[in-house]
Design brief:
Helix content is 57%, strand content 0%. It is mostly helical and 77 residues long. It has one domain (5-59). It is elongated. The termini are far apart. 1% of the residues are buried. The model is unreliable at 73-77 (pLDDT under 50).
Protein backbone atom coordinates (compact mmCIF):
# COMPACT_ATOMS: atom_id res chain seq x y z
CA UNK A 1 0.00 0.00 0.00
CA UNK A 2 1.32 3.45 -0.94
CA UNK A 3 0.93 6.51 1.28
CA UNK A 4 1.69 10.00 0.09
CA UNK A 5 4.41 11.48 2.27
CA UNK A 6 3.20 14.96 1.36
CA UNK A 7 -0.38 14.10 2.36
CA UNK A 8 0.60 12.63 5.73
CA UNK A 9 3.17 15.25 6.75
CA UNK A 10 1.24 18.09 5.14
CA UNK A 11 -1.71 17.25 7.38
CA UNK A 12 0.64 16.96 10.36
CA UNK A 13 2.17 20.37 9.60
CA UNK A 14 -1.30 21.89 9.29
CA UNK A 15 -2.28 20.35 12.62
CA UNK A 16 0.90 21.63 14.31
CA UNK A 17 0.29 25.14 12.98
CA UNK A 18 -3.25 24.96 14.34
CA UNK A 19 -1.92 23.93 17.76
CA UNK A 20 0.46 26.90 17.68
CA UNK A 21 -2.44 29.26 16.90
CA UNK A 22 -4.54 27.77 19.68
CA UNK A 23 -1.65 28.14 22.13
CA UNK A 24 -1.17 31.74 20.98
CA UNK A 25 -4.86 32.45 21.48
CA UNK A 26 -4.79 30.94 24.98
CA UNK A 27 -1.66 32.93 25.89
CA UNK A 28 -3.29 36.13 24.66
CA UNK A 29 -6.41 35.43 26.72
CA UNK A 30 -4.27 34.75 29.78
CA UNK A 31 -2.12 37.87 29.23
CA UNK A 32 -5.15 40.14 29.01
CA UNK A 33 -7.24 38.42 31.69
CA UNK A 34 -6.43 41.12 34.25
CA UNK A 35 -7.51 43.91 31.93
CA UNK A 36 -10.81 44.39 33.76
CA UNK A 37 -8.99 45.24 36.97
CA UNK A 38 -7.10 48.17 35.44
CA UNK A 39 -8.74 51.51 36.21
CA UNK A 40 -7.90 53.76 33.27
CA UNK A 41 -10.46 56.11 31.78
CA UNK A 42 -11.82 54.84 28.46
CA UNK A 43 -10.44 51.33 28.93
CA UNK A 44 -13.88 49.95 29.76
CA UNK A 45 -14.81 49.91 26.05
CA UNK A 46 -11.78 47.74 25.26
CA UNK A 47 -12.53 45.47 28.22
CA UNK A 48 -16.08 44.89 26.95
CA UNK A 49 -14.76 44.04 23.47
CA UNK A 50 -12.16 41.69 24.96
CA UNK A 51 -14.75 39.91 27.11
CA UNK A 52 -17.09 39.57 24.12
CA UNK A 53 -14.34 37.97 22.03
CA UNK A 54 -13.40 35.57 24.83
CA UNK A 55 -17.04 34.66 25.52
CA UNK A 56 -17.65 34.00 21.82
CA UNK A 57 -14.55 31.81 21.63
CA UNK A 58 -15.72 29.80 24.64
CA UNK A 59 -19.16 29.26 23.09
CA UNK A 60 -17.82 27.56 19.95
CA UNK A 61 -19.26 24.07 19.70
CA UNK A 62 -17.02 22.61 16.99
CA UNK A 63 -13.87 20.62 17.66
CA UNK A 64 -11.15 23.25 17.98
CA UNK A 65 -8.56 20.70 16.83
CA UNK A 66 -10.38 20.01 13.55
CA UNK A 67 -8.04 21.49 10.94
CA UNK A 68 -10.89 21.76 8.42
CA UNK A 69 -12.47 24.57 10.46
CA UNK A 70 -10.72 27.80 9.51
CA UNK A 71 -11.94 29.96 12.42
CA UNK A 72 -8.83 29.45 14.54
CA UNK A 73 -6.50 29.39 11.56
CA UNK A 74 -7.70 32.79 10.47
CA UNK A 75 -7.65 34.22 13.95
CA UNK A 76 -11.42 34.47 14.30
CA UNK A 77 -13.12 33.95 17.61
Amino acid sequence: MFFSENYIFGKFDTFCKRLERIADMMNTIENFSGLGEVKIEGLDIIVVKYKTIVDNAKKKTYDILDHRKAEVSRGRC
